[in-house]
Amino acid sequence: MTSSPYIAQRVLRQLIEDEGHRFPLGATVLSRSCYVDNIVCSTSSTEEALTLHHELTKLLAAGGFILRKWASSHAEVSEAFLEELKDRPRPVGDMNAIRLLGLEWDPQSDCFGYRVDVPSVEPTKRNILSQIARMYDINGYLSPVIFAMKRLLQDIWLAGLDWDCSLPATLLEHWSNIRSQLPCLNHLRIPRYIMGNPERRSVCLVGFSDASQVGMGASLYLRVWHSDGSVTCNLVKSKSKVAPLKTVSIPRLELCAAVMLSRLVRSVDFLFADFDIADIYLFSDSTTTLAWIQTPPYRLATFVANRVVEITNNSSPSNWRYVGTASNPADLASRGVLANDLVNSDLWWHGPQFLRDEPASWPSRDFHFIGAIPELRHCHLTTTSQELPPVINLMKRCSSFLQVQRVLIYVFRFATPREGLRTARPLSRPGSAEEFRRAITCCIRVTQNHFLADEIKHLQQGEECSAKYRGLTPFLSEDGLVMVGGRLENAPLPARSKHPYLIPYESPLATLICDHYHSFSLHGGPSIVQALIRRTFWIPSIRRLIRSRQFRCKICATFKAKPVQPQMAALPSSRFAIDRCFVNTAIDYAGPVFVKEARRRNCPSTKAYIAVLVCMATKAVHLELVSSLSAEACLAALDRFIGRRGLPETIFSDQGRNFIACARMIRENVPTEQQDVVLQHIGQKGIQWKFAPPYGPNFNGLAESHVKLTKHHLKRCLGSQIFTFEELCTLLIRIESILNSRPLCALTASPDDSFDFLTPGHFLTGAHLLTRPEPLLLDVPEPRLDRWQRVSKTFQSFWKQWKKQFLNTLMQREKWTSKAKNLAPGDLVLISDPHCSPLSWPLARVVRVCPGKDGVVRVAEVKTSTGLVTRPVNKLAILPSY
């Protein structure tokens, strides 16, 4: 960017970002009160003013800037300024003033004034425009006078005068009246401080808008209710605008004036924080504008709606009220006045008289609008009632093409006169081939007469059909049916295949034909169905229609239904608990395995099961051989585990129904009368038991994976042998030591890395269970050994290595990475069962969902014909809704 104004402002913004934290007061003023190269602000005390002077000087000096032309309305503050950096007032009329943003400011009286010089030059378009440009009015105090001058300039433009041409008599007289009173503005005095005593009761903002045939105006006032009960109201800002040359209605101009007022309110947002403004009151003398503001924008015409939206964005509709024209100061800005009238206008400088009274006595928010609100959006509703032929209504009501044919056959039989009732065949006899052909021809004829009426008319008159069907070269057959011509006239095909019937895509007959041949082909795919249909009928865009109908086929949708697989959840906190092993334990059963009662030959064998317990954090494994699935055997295995590994805080298990499938939950294994015994037993030991949802083995995946590892070694060791209980216990302990000696992290191929690797055995015994023998340290001097510190440090190093090497391997999701749409209550689903056909899957409806911490639904409660069941989402297949 090379724009100088941009660079100047951007440098100041950068200076605030870099050094503003050192000078907070100066940074705030520099960011809010800087106008091009002037800093204009006020403070509440001399101490604050001196602090601000110091911070602004230091802040700008940090960027290489020197602030000059300092001025203050307080003598003590002015004395703190360096003489060479002060701004010197100059005589302006009866005061010594400083030029400030087009205004003249007298520091002694703390008032604003204007200096208007009217040169004695010939009044031409160029000179009048120059005079208007010299009157820079940033706050719009002189809006009515400047508006009168702009209105005159518009008349000069309409007169088509050149820049240096003399004015006509009427325009010259008008300019003379304006020019003669411009010097009166030099006597205007506007107080800078209008807030009065700092101990005030309330401050509110009051605005007025008005429009006339020649222009629009808006004015904004600050009303202060002081602690002594007095009220002051002063003009803060105003704006005026000449009406466009294009004729615009008065209500629209009034609406544009209201937009102008709302923008004025938006431009003084800083006042709300500085003075704690309680209320905003906005007035207009146009009931039409007020009615538009209270009307929803979607009901209004585009021009009005766009401006009402802006008004409601900048203000609230409840802020707007009605005021009479006589009490509306914005009327001066919308029509223009002479300078002498403006200087002496109390209505313009202080607002209407009712602002000095209580707000309860002001004009009410309620107003009466007589007549209909203009420029409402008219909703044109066109309703067409076209009675369909009875045959088409029949095709819409019937679910199959054969049903339509049978109904038409009965209708034809009933309508055909019969001679000799005794010899006549009954109406319910099976239909013949000729009757079915007649019914199909009737369906085609009625469909074409209704949907292809224009095409038939063109073909009967020998004209070309529409471009939609022109590529098919349709023609009328001897029966008056529309056939497809095409380019297969000389092909060795049957006549019906070379010239099939033309069936419109949108007709119900096309839908019935697709459904019929889809069922006829035993739910075949689009290719076979399309080939069968094209032998007799030609339906444009047939493949799209076939896919649409197959999507609605219930049987096909059932076979295509797939369970929803949500994204893999984050690991639970139990996987990261740094504590002793088996504080959080996952349990599952493997088996059954067969054991012999004794070692003698032909000894009977019985079933046994393997309890697999896994530490959630370190993956340490504990295997227990269980004699049965009874509650007593489960409790005995749990007691043996606690005696050797310690008391766990939490046990995780699934709710599988079959031990052989490795997915049975212990709670379901125990009979109902024994469940209380199990829960009471673990409750006395202070163990919390958490269950996974039914049929959700992935919720207990850590135990499931170790069941798989245990079976891997067990199958290769057992083979076809049957061990005794003691032999199998010994084998399981060997397998347990193998599993606890496997590395937790990937091994490196570098010879420079440590020879040892981290295993679950390190957290159990301090080394993996298959470690090599260590040398004796009996000959090492005792002072060189600090045994307990060394042991403690060794175990801490295991956890440190566990955090650095092992935890990072759990970060990536190996599967189930895509996000799926969550189930919602009311969805229709099928409960999948891998052991039966999808047609036998039970139908259910989702009653309640159980979202996780990440908002993903992985468990749902569904209602079937037999009752409520809980299932994981990956066992539920969503059926499409039509």
From TrEMBL:
GO terms for biological process: DNA biosynthetic process; DNA integration. This is Integrase catalytic domain-containing protein. InterPro entries: DNA/RNA_pol_sf, DUF5641, Integrase_cat-core, Integrase_H2C2, Retrotrans_Pao, RNaseH-like_sf, RNaseH_sf. PROSITE patterns: INTEGRASE (PS50994). Residues 568-768 form the Integrase catalytic domain. Pfam families: DUF5641, Integrase_H2C2, Peptidase_A17. GO terms for molecular function: nucleic acid binding. One of its GO terms (cellular component) is DNA polymerase complex. It comes from the Eukaryota.
